[in-house]
Amino acid sequence: MHPKPSFLVGLIGSGIAASRTPPMHEAAADAAGIRYLYKKIDLTELKLGAEALPELLMAAKRMGFDGLNVTHPCKQAIIPLLDELSPDAEALGAVNTVVIRNGRMTGHNTDWFGFAENFRRNMQGAPLGRVVQFGAGGAGAAVAFALMKLGVRELTIVDVDLAKAQSLVNSLSPRFAEGRLRAGQDVAAYVAAADGIVNATPIGMDKYPGTPLPTDLLRPDLWVAEIVYFPLETALLRTARSRGCRTVDGGGMAIFQGTEAFRLFTDISPDPDVFFATFASLGG
After folding, report:
1. Closest CA to 11 of 44, 62, 84, 181
2. How do the domains of the chain map onto residue ranges?
3. Can you tell me which residues bind NADP(+) (predicted)?
4. Which one of the listed residues 39, 75, 164, 207 is annotated catalytic?
5. Region 6-109+253-281: CATH code
6. Backbone phi, psi, residue 216, to 5°
7. pLDDT tens digits for 202-222?
């Protein structure tokens, strides 16, 4: 018998009304036979910003929450308010999962795990010699960390803001062997020498249409990974598939960061198929 009969968790962020995370977690809990209530704490609806975090965390502690997921604009702002960080959250300087136990709050980052697990399951045997990643924002940091953990030999990070790409390289480099990470902007040359590319920018979302690189650079022996999942079939993936590239969409990253957060909250590994089915039923 599991020691805890029920769990109360929440999601703090702006504009999360349509988030698929709460129903995915609740469906997985039903399948596992545990009681689990997942509340949305939408800063937009509450007319609050990240400055409300201390008050919200105090309330969550007082009301007996077992954990929180955290999204934009709170992933970095929450760090100084926590008691402890996991090594991954510390490496990435971002938290998306907070476990509350015995009055202590520990910050974790499951975004990188989400990308890595999705890649492992869908891209077995993909060559990991040279990879080009587009985007050096918060998601980009998690993806770069995941790619290094997956064993990429040489990762080039491209961002419209070269200083941002260089800053990400500088922060991650000390944790990995020298010379494996670099920043740059010569997209055509990097892609020509690459085994695969990853889009870690918002380009491809409905509100940011387009592709992060010129599609004439795509060729059949290149694999293409995406983190955008709304829509699941971005312009980049559609073109890549039509060119014969091996591809992986962003849905799995969203799902596996969720399964790992669920495990951290409950100590129970959920059934990923339940997450997938729920995700798809919500218009995935």
Report:
1. 44
2. 6-109+253-281, 112-249
3. 135-139, 227, 250
4. 75
5. 3.40.50.10860
6. -70, -5
7. 999 999 999 999 999 999 999
